[in-house]
Amino acid sequence: MSSPLWSYVTPGIPDHLFERLPGIPLTKREIRLLLLSYLRLKADSVLWDIGAGTGTIAVEAALLCPQGKIFAIERDEDVADLIRRNCDRFGVKNIDIVEGSAPDCLKTLSLEPDCAYIGGGRSIKAILQSVWERLQPQGRIVATATNLESLYAISEALSELQVRNIEVVQSAINRLEMRGTHQVLAALDPTFVLSGEKLG
Question: According to the UniProt entry, where is the signal peptide (predicted)?
């Protein structure tokens, strides 16, 4: 699948190409690349993107999985509309935007995922439990944390669910920026990426 704004087969859409809303987080390009690699998407993957925000992960996944189906779950109506506009910007048609709060709305999704990304949520452990119950065998689950409390909650939930082949990485990324007349390397906020598999 190609896009008017992004005609490449590689992921990594520049952040400025996405429409944004003030105060709504955007998963930075470098973090997106890391997350997509841990999701291990296939051309026909079914991905649940929970806490989809601006829709960056959903859009990138939709372009990478032209025969797949992406469910972008977002509780805020204005943010869900933002995701729709970003889908239009990139010409993707294989994203279903689900307005609702996880984990409650997950039971309404029509397809079982073979991969899921949890980028946020007030009840992270309950969300992980609900996703795990519907995740296909050999499916992948990926979650992010930006603070130690979330890191602990996700780690505990993955252990309780007996997730296999758990991997944990922390990003350390710097971008070249202009500050006045000088070029400096500015750090992005560190992000923990936790992933694992459902073997049975």
Answer: none
Beta-carbon-side half-sphere exposure of residue 99 (alpha carbons within 13 Å): 9
The two structure tokens encoding residue 109: 């999704």
The set of residues, in sequence order, having a beta carbon less than 8 Å from that of 124 and lying 6+ positions away, is 118, 143, 150, 153, 154, 157
* 96: phi then psi, degrees, rounded to nearest 5: -100, 125
Nearest residue to 49 via CA among 121, 1, 104: 121
Domain-by-domain residue ranges, the chain? 15-197
pTM of the model: 0.93
Residue 144: closest CA among 162, 128, 126:
128
Q: Is the pLDDT of residue 72 over 90?
A: yes
pLDDT at 70 over 80: yes
- Which residues partner with 104 through β-bridges? none
- State how far the alpha carbon of 183 is from the alpha carbons of 146, 175, 187, 189, in Å: 27, 10, 13, 19
Half-sphere exposure in the Cβ direction for 59 (13 Å, CA): 31
- Burial class (CB within 10 angstroms; exposed 0-12, middle 13-18, buried 19+) of 149: exposed
- Please work out, in degrees rounded to the nearest 5, the angle formed at the alpha carbon of residue 127 by the alpha carbons of 77 and 152: 120
Secondary structure (3-state) at 189: coil
CATH topology of domain 15-197: Rossmann fold (3.40.50)
